[in-house]
Amino acid sequence: MEVDKRLTENFIYYKDTNIAFYQYGNPKGKAVVWLHGFLEDSRMWKYLIDDLPVSLRHIFIDLPGFGNSQCIAYVHTMEEMAEVVMRVLKELKVKKAALIGHSMGGYVALAFGEKYPETVRSMCLLHSTAAADTPEKIQNRNRGIELAKKNSELFAKTTFKGLFADWAHEQFAELIDEQAEIAGKTVVQGIVAALEGMKIRPDRTVLLHFAPFEIYHIAGDEDPVFKGQSLLEQFQAPKVRSYIIKAGHMSHIENRPELLKVLREFFKSL
């Protein structure tokens, strides 16, 4: 895939596979790790890069099976992906980092925070949840696996376009189509491995109450995946700061100004 010219591209070798990651900003600054969502890769963050503080060291990782990173196994558990994040940090000699995770990337961030709490400076969960999948959600994942095996491009494009608020489809039609094309190129094994991994992830809501680091949580008021108000109830914990903004599941496209406003607060807290 074509790499954004503003980024420095790097690879690590993990379990006989290449894992891609990209850097932006000050190599000596505090590290911020960006974790993309399902059917995305590091290119999702391109809409925000020009507004990110260059004093920080931004690290964008292509999770296994997405972007320029290869698949590791038939199932990519959130714990396995968290281990990939740790390997990247060790490669870069980063001892402490802030994590920003979008949707599935949030699941990975929580798995990382559970396993390596001493490495986390703070965490921002963007359109994500600490709860495990419901039985209904697991059924949907299983259907998604079967559909992806039959026609991965159609499944990916259709699923991706369903992540936006109704009003966003007209307002951001060109951007949505552009990103849906990227989603459609995701390899079928990357799709299946992520779905298999997400459906078996454990409930990590306890981490919201006992984590030794601060957690920011951003939800969309019209998120078709998660209901904003129900998520607020889940994230009512002493060390959690919750925000609801006007958006569906993809605020980096739907409401960049309001998302950046919250992220600036997050950066100031580092």
Automatic annotation (TrEMBL):
Reading the lineage from the top rank, the first entry is Bacteria
PANTHER family per UniProt: MONOACYLGLYCEROL LIPASE
User: What are the residue boundaries of the AB hydrolase-1 domain, all occurrences included?
Assistant: 31-134
* Regions that span the bilayer: none
Q: What is this protein called?
A: Pimeloyl-ACP methyl ester carboxylesterase
The species this protein was found in: Schleiferia thermophila
